[in-house]
Amino acid sequence: MVHLYNLHPFGSQQVVPCKLEPERFCGGGPDALFVAAGCKVEAFAVSGQELCQPRCAFSTLGRVLRLAYSEAGDYLVAIEEKNKSTFLRAYVNWRSKKTENSRVCIRMIGHNVEAPFCETFRDQMSIVEMPLSEAPLCVSCCPVRGDLLVGCTNKLVLFSLKYQIINEEFSVLDFELSLIIHLCNITPVEISFCVGYVAVMSDLEVLILKLESNPKNGESVNHHPHKTNRQMKPAEGISNEALQLESDDFVICQKPMELLGKKSEQSGISVTLESTGLDDEKVKYFHVQHLLYRRFAPDISSCVLSDDIKLHSLQLLPIYQTGSLTSERKNLSQEKELLSLFCFFSLPHVGYLYMIVKSVELMSVYQYPERSQQAVLTPQFLHVITSNYLQCFTVRCSAAAAREEDPDMDSTIKACPPVSMDVCALRIQLFIGLKAMCHFKNHIILLTKADPEAVPERRESPKRLLSRKATSDKLKTPPVAEAGWNLYIVNTISPVQLYREMVDYSNTYKTAKTQSCIHLLSEAHLLVRAALMDASQLEPAEKAELLEAFKESCGHLGDCYSRLDTQYSHLALPYYKMSGLSMAEVLARVDWVAEDGSQKYERGLIFYISHSLYENLDEELSEELAARVVQMFQVAEPKQLPHVLCSPSMKNINPLTAISYLRKLDTSGFSSVLVTLTKAAMALKMGDLDMYQHEMKSYSEMKLVCGFILEPRLLIQQKKGRSVPTELAVHLKETQPGLLVASVLGLQKNNKIGIEEADSFFKVLCGKDDDMIPQLLVDFWEAQLVACLPDVLLQKLFFKLMSQYIWRLSKRQPPDTIPLRTSEDLINACSHYGLIYPWVNILISSDSLADKNYAEDLFKLQLPLFRSWSHSQKTVLLASVSRFCVRRV
Questions:
Q1: What are phi and psi of 608, to 5 degrees?
Q2: Count of C-beta atoms within a 10 Å radius of residue 434
Q3: What is the Cα–Cα distance from 419 to 342, expressed in whole angstroms?
Q4: Phi and psi torsions of 446, nearest 5°
């Protein structure tokens, strides 16, 4: 399904002042447009104040059949025809061509340039001729490395881009024949090449391959043809006799087929690699991996076969690694790292978009209302021309690439619209007599001609159209240029400007159709995300504006999902997080009263608020907002009220308001120990000790411990990354330290708090620095010992306890509070203590150590430092400690 909107992605348009009707044209980097007509190529400026002004012109060997530009290397390559022969030529250093009569250097590929000629080469355009054993049919330039792939009848030829270094200050661009890919049973009509990925298209077939540069199992490069897969057996496809059938009485029609991954090797197309054996290649390819094969069948119901059934517009679209959306601008001199790759091709009425990195997957299918003539894929849009319309469709490339770049994309932290979302047509713009199109940067180049009769570029019999043995199509010489044609440069508006229009347009769906509103806002979000993925081409001000729009779009999507009560309502949380909005700012955007005057809070908003309160954000809501949150949960999820009230963000809640809502829980049958503890905490906050005592006596100590385990924030809260005791914890320290220690121990045993966090909690609670150990912490350690923690933790626990006992004995430092357990309690409660040594009783009975605290520490010191210690080792340690204590006396 294709959604249709009426937006305005196209801005101004200018007419390119060509003298002859263009036969071929293409973009030339960010600032030029190449137009070929006859035996001449003109370059026009497409940026700045010189828009559409001629830049330079140069002659070609013959009429240009194909034209392509490579930004890497800044060269133009053309397939030219002269005297029924075709030639492949690359135009290098074309920017130095000031006038049409300027001198030009013509050289063969691999020709060594002598140092004395360096200054001449620096100031003039060079034409590099690349001889081929077969006539070239199509070309493609790698957008990353600038390598050139040429399609011939039975093979593909790869030329690597390289530079001849003349001296330290000057180098000459050149090419090097590096690989020949032999193809059997398919004749290329169009090809596309990007960083080792090769797409080949015939009239009804598409084949996508990946050239692998790493040898398998230590193999060396094979300088002779090496078959990567066998040809299809007769049982797998049509028979050889059928393939060779040449009778005009029959039409061979094969069934449609789609083969993905390794299965595509069964297509019957043989692929063979032949290396040229050159030693100084930058990249050597040893193997080929089949990724996709798709074959279409023509509709022969009308018994008329024409161009209406042919594929067109094959394209590989790379998206590069960007890092974080907020990362700094990359160094443009570094080679881009490929993140994801997409392949597009089209029938006259249907377009297909595949993702082909890591996995091969059909992402989107585009249905055109009219027969298409050409289509161009960009990271943001798919542009399609019919005979009279320029159409702009949305694409899902940025959504797929975002998931490739960030594995945590679909989580409670981050989100992105799904790849499976329906595509939409943003605009259908009327142009009379559209013939051809190309796209680069933010420009769309359109060739129009008023003459309704189109001259087909390829004509052949139905029999040969359906056969793989069909040779390449010959381009027909166009008639003499007539008046009524124009070449337009249509400028697309900035992503931020189109984003604003899409947001405004979404307001028409805001109340009645939430899903339609989400769809359009998702399109706006993906538009901005796609622009940010090419942030290396943006100025700092543009990037900052896009980042602001990105956050704003996340806020809009969060608003939509917060109003939903469906399986997708949870997406309100990650989108609000990505928006950078605070919880107070989100609550300020909420419509608290429905249209009918009732108060209804949808699941998306409740999900966001509850998770935000659980995450212990360093944000305190005002008393008014806190009261609204309590009211919201009282209506939507009353069982969550105790947890909500324990959040640090709810610190400013009025205790009387909180208690009134908690009492409603009691009357509604939701009474529990957690509700009781929450009421006690609120009573303590009000200073009502009588109410506090009444609530705390409602349950036994064991039940109260279970309540604290259910909600640890009654005792411990996180503020700026530190554990801070609550007012209730401080009060329990003074009145019920045993309950406090038992509760913290319960939290630790249930993995609600870590060991170091618990130690820090007691130190902060008792007001001690890192070097001082309060007795309450020692009580907690002894409680851990009684609780029989795993052996891994026992050794550290033994060491901490013994260190504290020895320190107090040596410093004659009594505990700051009364210990909760005596030595007798410890000996009776756990098996880590043995019998009392006789000399310990003698030492304690002396007048010098008659203090009970010292006696207790000596008894507890019998705890072994290590369980593996022998009896004699323990005796030596205790004897040395006792001598030290007596000496201190």
A1: -65, -50
A2: 23
A3: 13
A4: -125, 135
Chain centroid, CA 832 distance in Å: 54
Q: Which of 581, 582, 560, 585 is nearest to 571 (CA)?
A: 560
Q: Which backbone phi and psi does 683 adopt, to 5 degrees?
A: -65, -40
Specify the pairing of strand 424-430 against strand 3-4. Answer: parallel
Least Cα distance to 446 among 493, 498, 388 occurs for 388
Listing DSSP states for 16-80 in one string gives ---SS--SEEEE-TTSEEEEEETTEEEEEE-SGGGTT-EEEEEE-SSEEEEEEEETTTTEEEEEE
Percentage of the chain beyond pLDDT 90 is 46
- Whether pTM exceeds 0.90: no
Give Cα 463 to chain centroid, integer Å.
Answer: 47
Residue pLDDT, tens place only, 189-198:
999 999 899 9
DSSP secondary structure code for residue 582 in this structure = -
Share of the chain above pLDDT 70, in %: 78
Q: Can you tell me which residue has the tokens 């063979």?
A: 272
* Cα angle, residue 63 at apex, residues 62 and 69 outer, rounded to 5°: 100
Residue type, 526: L
**To which residue do tokens 């990567």 refer?**
228
List, in order, residues 6 or more apart from 445 with CB less than 8 Å away: 16, 25, 27, 33, 437, 438, 439, 487, 488, 489, 490
Question: Dihedral through CA 630, CA 632, CA 636, CA 638, nearest 10?
Answer: 10
**Token code pair at residue 321:** 């690694």
pLDDT of residue 76: 94
SS3 for 378? coil
Query: How many C-beta atoms surround the C-beta of residue 419 within 10 A?
Result: 18
Quote the CA–CA distance of 649 and 626 in Å, as a whole number.
8
Q: Residue 220 corresponds to which tokens in the numbers above?
A: 């060396």
